What does this fold into?
Amino acid sequence: MRIGFLSLPVPGHLNPMTTLARKLQSRGHDVVFISLADTAPFVEAAGLPFVPCSEAIYPAGSFGQFVRRLSELSGEDALHFTVNVMMKGYTASLFQSLPETLDKAGVDGLVLDQYHPYVELISIHLGMPFVHVSNALHVDYTGRTPICFVDWPYETGADALAKNLEGIRRARVLLKPITAVAQAYAKEVGLPVDWNDPHSTLSRLAWVTQCPREFDFACAPDFPQFHYAGPFHDGRGRMDFDFPWEQLTGEPIVYASMGTLQNGLIDVFRSITQAAISLKKLQFVLAVGVQLDPKQLGPVPANVMVVSHAPQIEVLKRSSLCITHAGLNTALESLASGVPMLALPITNDQPGVAARMAEKKVGVVISQEQASPENVVAAINQVLGDHTFLNNVRSLQESISRTDGLSIAAGILERAFHLVSESSY
It folds into this structure.
């Protein structure tokens, strides 16, 4: 049986999904990774067979324009651009081209990114088994907890449920452009779908999140096929970047990254560099991505190192604090490395991740609007000066290490696709 992996074509989804595919491959299974042509370097770095899709609409080099625009946005603007432009167009292209791609690639089953809603309709139409994986924070539409796109704390009671359901209603309104594309496809191929139930097309075989159980709110999604795992990373299979290790001074490191999509927010990086002026006993490593020219930051203090990219896991292992946009991957890699955080959530599921950081007391959360140099200094001092944060992080670090979420997730996929008898162990 050949298993195809299909994820959103951005690093925050490609990195965990390629790692999971490589794990299944290492256990003796035939896998292939499917995505836009621009993702080929990520897949090749992971050592996986690659088949491009939607080449007529998204030829190589075309997706970067969308990423550049998204890097400049935040909040609702970023969310609307992600849904109405990037995801809507990509989804429509898949409905047109993916069936032929799957046939040519010889795929028998699919592992789908939950953040790409309704692509599973293709699998359902083809009669192909599929499972869902949440590379970002899992999206639960039941209202048992606040939907991940908001920063609300977890609460119980009738008022909390009503508030959660209102958050879900708003999220579904936001997703209407993608839903309309899916409805047109379902009508075209004759698929009956209960559009009133956002979970109606969820995989019945398995739904796996890389969020550890210990990091989530108390109330888990109420589905028998839902499984917590743990971080989908193993420190290997990523693109190589030159990094000036010789410039590290031995002072405690504050690693700062706003991820790969919202890294064009120059004011945030400027606040961090200005905060560094009064924190001379710390060394700051800023990974600003390719959307910003480091010269845009202006003069930086001697204790600030600015790079386009960094080998994040390796740098985190040496760090005392991580300043992050609260993307799930960076949050989990920080926890796995035993590093407390300062979170500045920007958009998408980042508010939900930040809400869990705050509840678990593994870091301090401030909004983008609050991120003045003075507030950044105060937050850094708060995290580094209160051992509660470090103690809580180390507790989660031990749990992550003990659980081995990547192996758990691979085992779930094997059972879902009935691959256990073919396994190499």
Observations:
- The two ends are 17 Å apart (CA to CA).
- The first strand starts at residue 2 and ends at 6.
- Confidence is low (pLDDT under 50) at residues 421-425.
- Residues 75-105 form the longest helix (31 residues).
